[in-house]
């Protein structure tokens, strides 16, 4: 329980405010914090970017776009169990990040802050 509380505090600080959807990257490491139509993706620095469409708690499987200064990134959420830092998360995330060798699939685990 202490680790979970610490995780919420860390992610809320990273985003500058409490956020409803929090994600930790498992390969490579990143933090994605989404609040409605804005998201902080710490792999790209401390910027906050447009995010569309806004995720909903009944997301099931959903596709989104993170509009970064370097161009749009595809983001996919799926209501599927995932483990990170020894905790179980109910949502899996995948972010497509362009690299010199093509698109790298960054994977991670998410949860709703109230969940």
SSE order, as H and E? HEEEEEEEEEE
Report strand order across the widest sheet.
1-2-3-4-5-6-9-10
Beta-strand residue fraction? over 45%
Spans of at least 5 consecutive residues with low confidence: none
Q: Mind describing the biggest β-sheet? A: 8 strands, antiparallel, barrel
As a percent range, the share of helical residues equals: 10-25%
Strand element count: 10
Q: What would the principal axes of the Cα set say about the shape? A: globular
How large, in whole angstroms, is the Cα Rg?
A: 13 Å
Mean pLDDT: 84
Q: What structural class do you assign from the helix and strand content?
A: mainly beta
The helix count comes to 1
Query: Separation of termini?
Result: 13 Å
Give an overview in words:
- It is globular, with a radius of gyration of 13 Å.
- The protein starts with a helix and ends with a strand.
- With 115 residues, the chain is mainly beta.
- Helix content is 12%, strand content 55%.
Short description:
The chain has one helix spanning 2-15, and strands at 21-27, 31-35, 38-41, 48-52, 61-68, 71-78, 82-84, 87-89, 91-99, 102-112. With 115 residues, the protein is mainly beta.
């Amino acid at each position: 329980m202490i680790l979970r509380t610490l995780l919420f505090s860390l992610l809320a600080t990273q985003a500058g405010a409490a956020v409803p959807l929090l994600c930790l990257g498992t390969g490579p490491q990143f933090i994605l914090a989404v609040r409605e139509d804005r998201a902080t993706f710490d792999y790209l620095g401390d910027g906050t970017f447009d995010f569309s469409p806004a995720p909903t708690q009944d997301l099931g499987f959903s596709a989104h776009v993170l509009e970064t200064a370097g161009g749009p990134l595809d983001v996919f959420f799926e209501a599927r169990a995932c483990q990170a830092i020894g905790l179980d998360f109910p949502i899996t995330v995948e972010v497509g990040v362009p690299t010199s060798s093509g698109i790298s699939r960054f994977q991670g685990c998410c949860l709703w802050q109230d969940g």
